[in-house]
């Protein structure tokens, strides 16, 4: 598993990689995670069940991603792939430079590669055009693609110019043992109050401006409604200005950035969860909120309509008026008691989304491509002009050839046989004491 986004950074991609890795380990697979350094966290670390994480000595350049260099990561990633006897490289997130480079080097080395797309992109602005061109280059010659929703699949197929047959849809999931309702938080002194919870990155894409527009109107119309807002970002100032302008300091609580282990503690304090995103491939946040028993209100964008059954979510077009009406309906339902009980919502979401199911479906994809023929360099060179265009395609052909020649040079300088093979420490659930002792010896 390779991505710029992993713990200690918190987010949906990070949680997805960790939970999927844990379930694959339980199913008998060997899983290694590769990411960049986070501050002084470099080298090899071990997480739960012996999950091995390589924090390679590269610092983030922009938005938690390393500087794209294409060729400089080859020697180090080759060493890791050979040392760990990797047979498949699974990259995550279209934003991740490290994921794209790892898949590129894997294909050069004859290792099969899979990509999971967690986001939606447009087609008109300059940023999207450049990103989509890079995605076409990255997906040319790849074995398979996984998307988290059917809307995301359509988006990725168009952006990457790939065949729909090579894209599978496997949604995200939630750890239902962690996100549980807590009736004790609904103490008698708060029964007449309605708390609306927002947990999101406070950026334009997450619809923070929409949220800022509806908060004053809701607070004026419903004196019993309060807001709890968790998250940070450049748009936080907009919400703070609204809070000060309308004197809502006591009714709008700004918590700032929240670590993922503390998200459930915030959710159970609320009655309604609102998501105002302008684009979403899946939105794991609304699944976590529903799993905690909250009513969910969300903008009807991207893959959101696919996530929850209609009776568990109020959908609205991404406009202030529509979101306002949906939130008012949720407030009225709460006041009159016309909503699905939290315990029932939890049980339904628990059955809908499990990481074990995600792991089984991902494993099925792995098994499928394991029997597919390897896509050699000549096949890849033929695909670049077809998928990426005449000019960019020839440039990408040159990059692929240079990378192949660089691999030959590195193999001559550091032969495969000179790289030590790492010992494999599998977690033995029947003998935890021996396992922890072995891990301790290896770390020492």
From TrEMBL:
The chain crosses the membrane at residues 395-414. Keywords: Glycosyltransferase, GPI-anchor biosynthesis, Membrane, Transferase, Transmembrane, Transmembrane helix. One of its GO terms (molecular function) is phosphatidylinositol N-acetylglucosaminyltransferase activity. Pathway: Glycolipid biosynthesis; glycosylphosphatidylinositol-anchor biosynthesis. GO terms for biological process: GPI anchor biosynthetic process. The keyword Membrane applies. InterPro entries: Glyco_trans_1 (IPR001296), PIG-A/GPI3 (IPR039507), PIGA_GPI_anchor_biosynthesis (IPR013234). One of its GO terms (cellular component) is glycosylphosphatidylinositol-N-acetylglucosaminyltransferase (GPI-GnT) complex. Its EC number is 2.4.1.198. It is an enzyme of class 2 (transferase). Signal peptide: none annotated. This is phosphatidylinositol N-acetylglucosaminyltransferase. Residues 184-334 form the Glycosyl transferase family domain. It holds the Pfam family PIGA. Residues 36-125 form the PIGA GPI anchor biosynthesis domain. It comes from the Eukaryota. The keyword rRNA-binding does not apply. SUPFAM superfamilies: UDP-Glycosyltransferase/glycogen phosphorylase.
